[in-house]
Structures
1.
Amino acid sequence: MEGQVKIKRVLISVSEKSGILRLAGALKSYGCEIVSTGGTRKVLLEGGIDVTDIASVTGSPEAFGGRMKTLSFNVCSALLFDRGRDAAEARDLKIEPIDMVVCNLYPFKKFMDAGSDIDILVENIDIGGPTMIRAAAKNYKYVAAVTDVSDYEDIINELRGTGGYLSLDTRVGLMRKAYNHTADYDALVACAMDERFGERSVRLGFSRGKMLRYGENPHQRAWFFAENGAENPLYDMRVLHGKELSYNNTVDINGAAEVVRGMKKSGCAIVKHTNPCGLCEGDDQRRAFELAWAGDPVSAFGSVIAFNKKVDLKTVEFLALDSADRTARKFVEVIAAPSFSEDTLEYLKKHRDIRIIEYDMSVGSGKYDLKYIRGSLLIQDHDDELRSKFEMVTVARPVREDMELFEFGMYAARCVKSNAIAIVRRTDDGFLSLCGMGAGQPNRLNSTGLAIARSLETISNECSGDTGVDIYVKNQMAKAILASDAFFPFPDNIDECAKAGIKTIIQPGGSIRDRQVIEACDRNGIAMIFTGTRHFKH
Amino acid sequence: MEGQVKIKRVLISVSEKSGILRLAGALKSYGCEIVSTGGTRKVLLEGGIDVTDIASVTGSPEAFGGRMKTLSFNVCSALLFDRGRDAAEARDLKIEPIDMVVCNLYPFKKFMDAGSDIDILVENIDIGGPTMIRAAAKNYKYVAAVTDVSDYEDIINELRGTGGYLSLDTRVGLMRKAYNHTADYDALVACAMDERFGERSVRLGFSRGKMLRYGENPHQRAWFFAENGAENPLYDMRVLHGKELSYNNTVDINGAAEVVRGMKKSGCAIVKHTNPCGLCEGDDQRRAFELAWAGDPVSAFGSVIAFNKKVDLKTVEFLALDSADRTARKFVEVIAAPSFSEDTLEYLKKHRDIRIIEYDMSVGSGKYDLKYIRGSLLIQDHDDELRSKFEMVTVARPVREDMELFEFGMYAARCVKSNAIAIVRRTDDGFLSLCGMGAGQPNRLNSTGLAIARSLETISNECSGDTGVDIYVKNQMAKAILASDAFFPFPDNIDECAKAGIKTIIQPGGSIRDRQVIEACDRNGIAMIFTGTRHFKH
């Protein structure tokens, strides 16, 4: 059998001992000799497994409080010598090959996470283990390096299937895992030592890289990786139907999912170029979708849409994909949700290109937010504090003390790129809905203008006839809340709001001209609430 | 001397041999015994340095084609035993301490970069070296682990100053470097093995972490790191004056510098919330600054500004920082440039808060663009192809075949967040200048509207009186170029352009409605150029 290696002699030295008896038992059943060290040997002996003491291989005692157990000319040679080229030399030196190392390392991370003192940390830097693992991995053509308890079962099965052999494929897989394991281990040690002695350092590992069709643009190649040792909801999303996901889809799916995953009721976000142009939350999914769509029906075409609940047929029928009137069909790029009912899938699949994405929204967003720029890395906490207060700063009071709506407004502004303005409303049937937003502008007045213009259109569109439009718009604008991600630097924004009929503004406050801004509100009968918490997002 | 260790016995085994004779010579002069292996021993002997053969320490021969040289009970013990706790045991076992390891590893990277075959790669995975280094580092209380040629000189100086001793501080520093070195090494090996066997993986390391005042917002903690083994122009920028840089400053400085660093003539970029709201290139720095500022004088307040040449006094006097009229003073957050003349610095320092940044713009932007999102990593090529063609697609031809201006237009659109529209112009005195831009909109019509409105204002502002404004604006708009980062999905944008008097449009093309878009141009006497290259940027 090409590339097969009979496992005759195994060195086992494990810190994590679960599963080891089962593996050793299986190896024994194929006549394998097991060499082992201190604690591992004890466990194996107690489990009734006959073990060769490592000292009889090394020719040296276990020494120095366990710092020296396996490290020796004999053991290293037994792992490292080339079974072809070096066979005669090994015979002369009386080196008997070891065909497998089963080793996991001192639990350095456990002590690090526990904040152990430096001496305990250092004692838990494994020296022998990585040497055995790295040596076995280097000689993968002849030796198996087993470092992961979760691989035991596959190994047992393969031994069973072959009568005690492991294939080259298996050994290559184990070798790669082995070097990744020692790389992770030293990454941990290096960062911990840096930190203990006053320097912060970070090491990140990513794997399962897949090439994307292209990057942000067709002339840019792109790849997508999953972070090692982290939850990967984005990487692990499932494409149930449709064209391959693009780089931009991937970014927008994350953005849309992040917006809706925090919502308790049925939420819908419609994202275009990383900004939500539609956003709604309420008791009914179809209605939430309709209202989100109404927030910017032009931009919604070709958008990425996320729902936070299982999607039902009634909801997606809004897309009118099978309408006889082609212009009535609403084309979107992506629909992402935690799940889809069967009939929903069936309906959506009528459109060849639409991507249907199953996305696990129960997973948190990880510890930090990372931004890589030109050989440097910026790390920050996620922006997950919505407000530190609600402080009424004006003479006028809001039309309604609708705390849910105030929070929704600031939430929407937080989701939009800075400078961000969001105008939100509670609809007459109780949904929280984005009427319009202004995004990504170099000055706030632009964003305010964009949000107002968009909102006026959204609200006007709700009127079927011409009669009463003005009154309807006026009433709705008066019920709406304008939220700003950061303070207003000048009162000019307030004048624009007043002209548009806005009656309530919510913003962090904190400008040196707050007084003038508040005065402008008072002059215009506008209620203003300070939240104390800015939400720049770029 | 507390924490000092006399270096009596040193193990030297280096792949990179530069500087080693000098270090060994210095060690010898303090009576140190030098133990060495194969190639290193030869170099030292040839250099006239007396060397103990490693075999007399290990008690074993060099074996298996060099795979076994240092790995042995004796050498590992000599590095690892605790000089306090284990002293008696070491005496019993006849282990003589080794106080320093000088070791750098097989040049795995060299062979990897050269695309060597797998057997050569594997032969160049160092096993003994990392073991010696890691063991010495673990025992840093007594042993020095020297892994970097660039540390030799400091070590020689310290030995000279102390008569052959190294301090605890030095050994701690070496220990941290050692674990970072082995972490880097195994990161390289792990990724190379993954790649050779069909999986892409990435490992990144960052150090020199410093805490920033806060992140994008005050309630978010933030840190700033330099990437290991990369050029770090952003991290290494020097704050010559002013308040500490914020997270947002840092991001914008990079953005602004990236915009101007590619320009040949004097360039100025004014960035606000990551978008350039002002941009100009030409023969005179002061004039370029003025024109960039005129692109959006409201947004320019509190902005981040970058120049690509040494900044001179005349340029910054435009800020009027010492004007008697306080309202005439132009406050900006940051000015970044490769350098500043002395009198410029003096002038700028009059303003306490202005940050003056020396930024090395000669450094490239690194291999890839990385985006980290929620446990996954997107990697793509930088967007560094401006256009694949210039194709005239309309009946009308541009007023002038100004290729430089066409490229400048597309360059400006590429710098702006999508959907991006940039209106640019060659001024009558020959400068390439951004008149106005539309950024970050969910639909292109919004961006077009923003860019046009801004440009009309920029141009109107140039007229001192009322006479002839309309004609002037009309003439200037006719000379301007409107550039779009991606195709126009509908002809509606063209109608807007026509209304505003735009005569030339440059865009990638590629919409299914290109024909209608071109027809709209022809109807309006507008010239249109297709570039074939999209520039989404989010």
Note: Chain A touches chain B through 132 residues (CB under 8 Å).
2.
Amino acid sequence: MHPALRSRIRGYGYEVFMKEMIDDTDENRKKIVQFVAQEVKNDGKIPHFTREAVEEIIREAKRKAGMRDKMTLRFRELGGLIRASGDLALERGHRYVTAKDVLAGKKSARTLEQQIGDVYLDRKKEYNILVTSGGRVGRVNGLAVIGEGGTVLPIVAEVAPAQSKSSAEIMATGKLGEIAKEAVTNVSALFKKISGKDISRHDIHIQFLQTYEGVEGDSASVSVAVAVISAIEHIEVRQDVAMTGSLTVRGEVLPVGGVTQKIEAAIEAGIKEVIVPYSNIKDVLLEKKYQGKITITPAKTLIDVLKHSLIKGDKIVEKMRELID
Amino acid sequence: MHPALRSRIRGYGYEVFMKEMIDDTDENRKKIVQFVAQEVKNDGKIPHFTREAVEEIIREAKRKAGMRDKMTLRFRELGGLIRASGDLALERGHRYVTAKDVLAGKKSARTLEQQIGDVYLDRKKEYNILVTSGGRVGRVNGLAVIGEGGTVLPIVAEVAPAQSKSSAEIMATGKLGEIAKEAVTNVSALFKKISGKDISRHDIHIQFLQTYEGVEGDSASVSVAVAVISAIEHIEVRQDVAMTGSLTVRGEVLPVGGVTQKIEAAIEAGIKEVIVPYSNIKDVLLEKKYQGKITITPAKTLIDVLKHSLIKGDKIVEKMRELID
Amino acid sequence: MHPALRSRIRGYGYEVFMKEMIDDTDENRKKIVQFVAQEVKNDGKIPHFTREAVEEIIREAKRKAGMRDKMTLRFRELGGLIRASGDLALERGHRYVTAKDVLAGKKSARTLEQQIGDVYLDRKKEYNILVTSGGRVGRVNGLAVIGEGGTVLPIVAEVAPAQSKSSAEIMATGKLGEIAKEAVTNVSALFKKISGKDISRHDIHIQFLQTYEGVEGDSASVSVAVAVISAIEHIEVRQDVAMTGSLTVRGEVLPVGGVTQKIEAAIEAGIKEVIVPYSNIKDVLLEKKYQGKITITPAKTLIDVLKHSLIKGDKIVEKMRELID
Amino acid sequence: MHPALRSRIRGYGYEVFMKEMIDDTDENRKKIVQFVAQEVKNDGKIPHFTREAVEEIIREAKRKAGMRDKMTLRFRELGGLIRASGDLALERGHRYVTAKDVLAGKKSARTLEQQIGDVYLDRKKEYNILVTSGGRVGRVNGLAVIGEGGTVLPIVAEVAPAQSKSSAEIMATGKLGEIAKEAVTNVSALFKKISGKDISRHDIHIQFLQTYEGVEGDSASVSVAVAVISAIEHIEVRQDVAMTGSLTVRGEVLPVGGVTQKIEAAIEAGIKEVIVPYSNIKDVLLEKKYQGKITITPAKTLIDVLKHSLIKGDKIVEKMRELID
Amino acid sequence: MHPALRSRIRGYGYEVFMKEMIDDTDENRKKIVQFVAQEVKNDGKIPHFTREAVEEIIREAKRKAGMRDKMTLRFRELGGLIRASGDLALERGHRYVTAKDVLAGKKSARTLEQQIGDVYLDRKKEYNILVTSGGRVGRVNGLAVIGEGGTVLPIVAEVAPAQSKSSAEIMATGKLGEIAKEAVTNVSALFKKISGKDISRHDIHIQFLQTYEGVEGDSASVSVAVAVISAIEHIEVRQDVAMTGSLTVRGEVLPVGGVTQKIEAAIEAGIKEVIVPYSNIKDVLLEKKYQGKITITPAKTLIDVLKHSLIKGDKIVEKMRELID
Amino acid sequence: MHPALRSRIRGYGYEVFMKEMIDDTDENRKKIVQFVAQEVKNDGKIPHFTREAVEEIIREAKRKAGMRDKMTLRFRELGGLIRASGDLALERGHRYVTAKDVLAGKKSARTLEQQIGDVYLDRKKEYNILVTSGGRVGRVNGLAVIGEGGTVLPIVAEVAPAQSKSSAEIMATGKLGEIAKEAVTNVSALFKKISGKDISRHDIHIQFLQTYEGVEGDSASVSVAVAVISAIEHIEVRQDVAMTGSLTVRGEVLPVGGVTQKIEAAIEAGIKEVIVPYSNIKDVLLEKKYQGKITITPAKTLIDVLKHSLIKGDKIVEKMRELID
């Protein structure tokens, strides 16, 4: 099996994207135009691209960047799209590669890595791992990036009597990477405040469901916070909501990467509302077919997240407001 | 000795199978037909396959996938089966390889790895390690995959006075891999709830019997949960029942891999009933000779598992229902 | 010095033997006959073997397997025996290699590894490390495999006031391998039950005497259990008894490897009775000279072991019976 | 993407600079003059440098050293500047490379590494991670070096009920390197004194925001101290202030590296006042465009830092004075 | 400097010697005679050895073995002695190498490794690290092997108020190897019994003086036991006594390696009495010049050791007798 | 930058020097004379050395040894000095290399490593890290070796309320190596005795200032002891005193390496008195220009060290005397 498929589920922050993007300037757009021409020339068989087709390539470069006014630097992936679109145009007997060819090419050029996200999602739905309606205590639909696509990553929390008479343990499973573990540590500052002194009498269990290849990054912070607070307070979480976002120890929501892919995955899974960091709103660049299919709710603090995800959560929102404002 | 025999016992989740399967589509079936033809050609000596023989090869490809509507990608193993079947047809003087030749070939093509599962099972029966009738406190017949076959993996639990005056320890032995250890951590949330505050006064011992090469994966979660709850509550577990299934920290049963192989192994061991995750039911694809030989009980939550495995367990089932519903 | 001598003392379970054995079938016996013939041919000088001589080789193949109805796969070692027997026959001017030549060859073919077991035993006797008569508190004669031979491995336990006011420590020394450490953990479930709440006020020290190269496996479990229970209860252990056996956390005795070699070593050391797992009884295949020289006592549970090893242990046997039955 | 971009954020002490600098002596200045001549000769195309241009190169060598009366030894970087300035002079048709060409060259010669600092800063501003006005409890603008430039590194602290009934934990996240972790340990001596016995009842959380590549060095010590003291005492920190400095366990401020770059980064971020170690004041060598743009406050002890960064912090300054004087 | 000098101080048990020795049989003596002849032949210049000279070589082979009725297998070292003796005979114009030449050769053939022991000893005396008269609380002269020679290894113990209110720590410094650490653990069983419940209120510090290259083995066990018991009970230890011996957790003294070298080192250091394991007495094979220069006291249990090493230790000996008999 | 500059600060004990020295015998002096002649011959250009010049070389060999009656084995370094002196003699037109040339050569031959010690010292003075007058609580001027030269290494200690209600922590920062950490452990025995039971209520912080490359060895033991005792007792330490010395857990001062270099560094830093181990006094071999510039105080026990370093420390000296005598 292709080793590329051994991808870790990534709920990473912004830094990865940072390193693979350039500004969306006229100069850089020209570079992409040149790159398209060169690929056509190198290939030798595929026809030239129309202006609209090139525009579509640039649009994809922007989508892949994941940040407004930026374009991806991963030209190798763009190259795959260019060739796939060209081949389609040839098949269709087009004299030029059109925007439609590029859109169609996008699907056939989906890499092995992208397909994993789909398979995971399929499986989760088929095997009842995903819940997308009603309310559940201690269960949250997180969002993650896997390969190049997004996926819904359910997180379940439970509170149990402490093994130790004097001290609580916080146990997070799912093969978490270093940053993901630190994120849980940061989030614990918030639910310890909700619990108060009582915290020492209970163990907190946090489970990332079926993440056998591991979890990286800190973008599940808000999901973990909501799942644990729900479990502590026995308040239901809306299952038609999914969410992504990093958190400070004082409850501010920080930006994350891959919001576009994550939102598209949420739509595919049947989610009705996504909560994303306020400062990421401008990075959302949905494919046409996904536009208008979901409510996108920006959040500046954990308060905003709790308000939109808890069922009958007014009291706990009020309590949290006092603690972190 | 062949290094392949150094296989770890795997009670793994679904992910491994995920990566080695393709959809059961007409297109992919055609690929297998072509693959059979090519193997026949490469070999040079074995005769062509009848349509029914090829159907049998495809059926095996589906069995190996372990998931409904999927076929295995491990063509190398199929190749072994094709050659073994062809050789048998030659021996029998058949002009074409028939479905019967393939069924017979399946047995002779069992790899070294598959044979281990058999040997382990033989040994466990001969050396009284397996118990398959009556009731026992703290002892559960788990199910695992070893090499390419299934096996019954007994798990024993005991509760002892805590070494520490203030804190319980949960000790699981059997050279557990990372995911298996995390699974024990997740399961502990459930038995801590059964125990209540009392948990801190006892150490919990969990032993995977004679797994000298180690245990991977989280499909033993339900077995561990039942063994420990039985030990805590001094309630007997049915020994004619075997079980497999992953668990969330809130008691939901999640799907696992290899259910077909596991059920066949349970039958070989003399088990009368197997409990499997509800969402895995559709993946069961028993060989004809095993069909109807065992009761297959689907479980959605730990409640279902306890109901079918405990003897006189009504009270504890009721208690657990209150705790996890 | 030959690196082979750097062998670890192994008190291992059954798995090692498992991997190096084949069934004792007519077909496999034929293979050994062929192997003997081939070795004779390859050597070019040694004479052919009589039917009885070949039988003796097969008997050795069975002894080495360590499991009834199995034969060893370690043909290289058999080859050494064949050549040594042939050389002896030549020296003695025999026209054929006889069964007696093979028996004599067995001694001269003892590998370097086998010799170590002897040396260790010699040293232990000469240096008063072994005690083989009378009764001692906290001291048990365990049995282990070293190289290809057996040896007596004394284990000493002591109970001391706990370093910590609130928690006991269990400390086992002797460079224990992973499985050996897990075995001590499993055994601790049993002596914690004997101790009751009192366990937290004492540290338990367990010492494998002079095992500078390390100890592997779990076959010392019963020895550790008896030594610690003796130390806790101030009851003497019979020093003319030696024992081997793995244990579950609930006190059942599980089979181990190498019982034949271990029993022969016990006889050499002057031990009068050995306790072995009930399911291993059928694996005992002593050389003629050792037959009838020792009482072999089978044990199904720790109760059986305690009954035969403690002096005036009735009360503690009764107490343990209540705890693990 | 260029691996050089995978730079860790460094808030390091003085040692790095130490190793890469020589005295600012006439002899060493001559070496730089010779180096410029040699680079011109090696290049073959760029014109000679005027005396003023060489002076500007020397000035840059001093800036890069980061310590008064020292010059950098990193000639490879200077070489880049020389060639960039030469190319500019050629473009502009200059017969000699002038001081202005060098100043212009400095910008175009900014290495990839330098650009990262800019990008990080841009992102932090755009994504609301930076706060540069008003007051906040538990939030401090630290200063760090990233690549060859400076950056503002926000640090957030929070105090929460302790997980353990008897002991506090101090948890710092952000992938801290060894020296950075030791710095937090040292700083803890100071906030434990502020807390008094009460310290054992609370967990202290310290978060370096979005430092996915890790943090090295001890120059964030003062920032951590101020953030934690602010969180403990519920006193606001001025957000228009940024700070850098190492600390002894008794509250003395020790010198750090990179003060010039850090101050310039603070100016770029909109900070109004920077607090730097008293003994580093002489190392500040701002580019002309930054001169006079920010208040530079020297600090000898933590008292000085608290005085300039806390809003209504008189009481706590008084308390700290009693504790560390 | 020669890497051989980087030797660890070894206070090891018997196992090392075990592996490098053969039986002192006529057959093996013949092998040494042949080896001498061969070395003479290979060298080409040195004369033949008289029977007495060869006897002296054999005697050295026995001394190096360190165990009665055994001879060393380290022929390479014997080769050095043969050549050195031959060269001396040549220098002296002898026609044959005589026993006296061999005795003289022994000194000049001392390897670099042997010389280290001397240097360490010199240094310890010159720098007042060794104390060889009077009585001291918590200080014991241990004996160790360094390179091929022995050395005196002072061990100092101290009892201090425990850092923790509820638990004692036992801290041993001197870069101890794994077996050495386990030896300290074993010994702790004994001094915890002397201390009783009180043990939890004090930390025990054990320091192997100036062993910068580390300490291996368990032969310092008796020294550590005496040093700690002396420190706990405020009883002086005789400084004109040195000791070596391994210990069981129940106070029995087990044999160790290198007793001859250790005793010779003790004599060189000015020690008046050495305590060695009872079962090692037969291994002592002092050079003529050392014979009768020291009292050699055998010990079967820790009681024997305490009797001969403590000043006014009757009470503590009595107490220990009750605890370990 | 030259990797040699990445030297760790070493406060090591005697062992390093031990391995790199030979006896100061006539024979060895002859070897140095021959070495000088050979270097002159190999070089081909530099003139012969006068007897006085050779004497100066020998004197340097003794200084480098660091131990009376020993000479260094590091001939490579001596070679550098010989060539440097020869070159100077040539420059000066001397016919022979004179003692003065050697003295001058010593300065120019200072290796890169030696220069680091100077730079560190410069920096510490310039950046106010060093304090060399007056009294300070919890601050001690230690002495260390860096490269081939000495340096002053300030150590700061502080006592803070314990994080844990029941247990003290001792935290030492500065990237300590294994021996350095063990030294802190040993020293803790002494300050725990001073504190008494009270020790469990406070955390002890020990900081080696700005030792970014790490600290090795145990020669800072006395400095750590004095710094912590000063912090516990709120007694000032004289800042015009520096000290070096290893310690036993019972307060005896043990010898260390590099005393000559350390004392010279102390003089350069403006220190007025150095405390060195009594047994090292004979190793001091100051360059003429340093002779008489500092008071050298020998110490046999920690009492001696405290007497000369504390201001108004009579009471604490008395208390310590009772505890360790």
Note: The longest strand of chain A covers residues 149-161.
